[in-house]
Amino acid sequence: MLQNIVNALVLGSSYVMIAVGLTLVYGILKILHIAHAGIYAFGALFAVYLYELGFPFILAILLSLVVSSFLGVFVYRGFYKHVLNRGRIVPLVMSVGLFAAMEDLYRLVWGPYKRPFDVYLNLPDIMTPSLYLSSRGVLMLIVTVIVVFVLYLLLMKTKLGKSLRACSNDLHLAGAFGVNTDRTIAYGFLIGSCLAALGGILVGLYDNTVYPTMGSVPSYKAFVVVVLGGFGSIRGAVIASYILALVETFVVYKLGYLLPRDAIAFLTMIVLLMFKPEGLFGKVQR
User: 140 near 199, Cβ under 8 Å?
Assistant: First the structure.
């Protein structure tokens, strides 16, 4: 039981990173930023690339986070910004196309094969008679707690956080009250992309593997989490990440792999939406 709970916490933490960033972008622009998963994969691939070039581990990660963050801003300013007034379908289709193009580009640059992220972490494994948690799992949990806390402080205690929340509530009204909406949206993409890249790096470390298509499954898992938590709700995304991970872990534990883990995610979403169509913390649309 304890081992399954810990496994679920680690899995849920991996969902938190990508889902929170996606929620942040959706909250402001009300578009599904599928290419977010492309930045998730880029963060991991670029960090491994820099590490293989001889960069120190920490520096490789920091540089990857910086480049990934600005890649997110480039996606907004270079693509989405020009189609925001054309309804939600056009940005959605553009996002899917961008994600596919990113994966193909990664294959061309770094090859189609899996690459190890073989780094020694100076952290202890946790081993007891009833529990095993690797040092990489410990790192995943610690970093997620820190990130969620810092993000809470940023959103609730800073001027930028107030601007992000104002734009999320009503983008046009925020602009009318003097918020620089374009700059605020860019910051939203910057922060969200940094979180996605960090998520990719942590998952790459935990699995000791990175590859060009590693964002494919997280792209729709993050979508499930965002829907479960309620569109635009950061708190909902965090809680839904752990609920989904707990459900997946315990259903697989009880049924084995009779029901694939990914199918469980969508079934969970369907069942919850039957009773709470707005998601756990979403606002009822009237």
Answer: no
For residue 110, CA distances in Å to 87, 237, 277 come to 35, 32, 41
Determine the 3-state secondary structure of 129 from DSSP: coil
Render pLDDT for 11-28 as a digit per residue (tens, 0 to 9): 899 899 888 888 888 888
Amino acid occupying residue 240: A
CA gap 116, 265 in Å, rounded: 27
Residue 71 backbone class (left: φ over 0; alpha: ψ -120 to 50; beta: rest):
alpha
The average pLDDT across 28-48 equals 90
Nearest residue to 36 via CA among 113, 104, 92, 109: 92
Which parts of the chain are beta strand (E)?
126-128, 131-133
Sequence-distant (≥ 6) Cβ neighbours of residue 227 within 8 angstroms: 269, 273, 279
As a whole number of angstroms, the distance between CA 149 and CA 273 comes to 28
Burial of 198 per CB tally in 10 Å (0-12, 13-18, 19+) = buried
| Nearest CA among 95, 117, 113, 112 for reference residue 43 | 117
Amino acid at 258: L
Task: Report the first-to-last Cα separation within the chain, whole angstroms.
Answer: 42
Helix axes 234-255, 2-29, angle to 10 degrees: 140
